[in-house]
Design brief:
The structure is a homodimer of 217-residue chains. The first copy, chain A, has a domain at 23-93 and 132-195: NADH Oxidase, CATH 3.40.109. Helices cover 47% and strands 14% of the residues of chain A. Chain A has helices spanning 9-18, 33-44, 63-69, 78-81, 96-110, 118-128, 132-157, 169-176, 178-181, 210-213; strands spanning 55-59, 84-91, 160-164, 183-192, 214-216. Chain A is globular and about 60 Å long. Chains A and B meet through helix 1, helix 2, strand 1, helix 5 and helix 7 of A and helix 1, helix 2, strand 1, helix 5 and helix 7 of B.
């Protein structure tokens, strides 16, 4: 199957070079619905280990809730100024039940009897049966894949975003009531459009030289 | 600054739906140089916490080395059949020296005296001064952002890829001699073009319904 409408490499790189961790959003600019819907879909379509999707994405639209999240996010203004705020959450106590929920879904989508997935089930059960801290760390790492997908998708769509690890996760859990729903906040991404006077947006992007970051063996 | 040549949302989604964790590569198909170079650049341009880039990407071209890596990757054929194999490695013992190396680079690229970066330095030092296991886990999570960027970049360029967590990292470290260079293997991505007879490529993509994965608050 040939790829649909592949992007030219220079176009991709122009988007990735344009992308910044936006420090100042223009609070008056909204992301058009088709673009936002595609960004949500990019999260849905994100890869994860085994395809297990040990995550949920909470899009916080309630202004009052966002105001409460700001002080527990080091007061960063993006929390209230960006058009969209997504809290990336990892499954709390990822377990055999999650594996089985996923297998049900595979069986449904691919019209397969669950019996043919027995070996796959065994592999996944081994992963979720490790000590809880390891399972938690593993689920948390998957969230970062979705973050990478989301930020790249935003860049190629011409939407600004800002990943934010600097949040008080316990307070996020408390304010959003996540643990009771079976989730734990991991990080945040805000999205919208950069303010014209965002001073950081004018600074040169800093990366180590390619020759230092990529090594052929 | 307006985004350069933004992609249409439907085009992006077509690429993300086309993307699969490729199980069977066509060993005769090579990625054209401009595309591979752009994929390397997507790694260089990947975001990371503080922009610290606690990573290095080893592109293993040596066939003999790839043959050695296959048995320590659950024998997965992608390790030798894919055109490219990238080992994503995290900084071993991330420390104040890495922070200072990064600050040197900021100072160089932005032509700023290091003194103006003192507060930023302090923040980063606090992060790398946590207990070693926490610092290591944090650096490792950053690698997964780069993975998400790489897989999305490959998809929009029409290049197939496969992320692989199922590797014996210690054996990778040993075979590639990474710890002596200051790095630890975290995961692998292979890239190339899917084989025409890759049975997995024909299966429907399985995701939980959007309404289950995305929740508005």
């Amino acid at each position: 199957m040939t790829a649909p409408n592949a992007l030219a490499p220079d176009t991709l790189l122009a988007s990735l070079r344009w992308r910044i961790a936006t420090k100042k959003f223009d609070p008056t600019k909204k992301i058009p619905t088709p673009l936002w819907s595609a960004l949500e879909d990019s999260l849905v379509l994100s890869p994860s280990s085994y395809g297990l999707q040990p995550w949920k994405f909470f899009v916080v639209e309630d202004k009052a809730v966002r105001a409460k999240l700001k002080p527990v996010s080091w007061g960063q203004p993006q929390i209230v100024d960006a058009d969209k705020l997504v809290v990336f959450a990892a499954r709390k106590d990822l377990s055999a039940a999650d594996v089985d929920r996923y297998l049900e879904r595979i069986s449904e989508v691919r019209r397969l009897p669950k019996e043919v997935l027995a070996d796959y089930r065994k592999m996944m059960l081994a992963s979720v049966s490790q000590e809880p801290a390891r399972v938690q760390a593993w689920a948390t790492r998957q969230i970062y894949i979705a973050l990478g997908v989301f930020l790249t998708a935003a860049a190629v769509l011409g939407v600004d975003a800002c990943p934010m690890e600097g949040i008080d996760k316990d307070k996020y859990d408390e304010i959003l009531g996540l643990p009771a729903k079976g989730w734990n906040a991991v990080l945040v991404a805000t999205a919208g459009y950069r303010a014209d006077d965002d001073a950081y947006a004018k600074l040169a992007k800093v990366r180590f030289p390619k020759a230092e970051l990529i090594q052929k063996i």
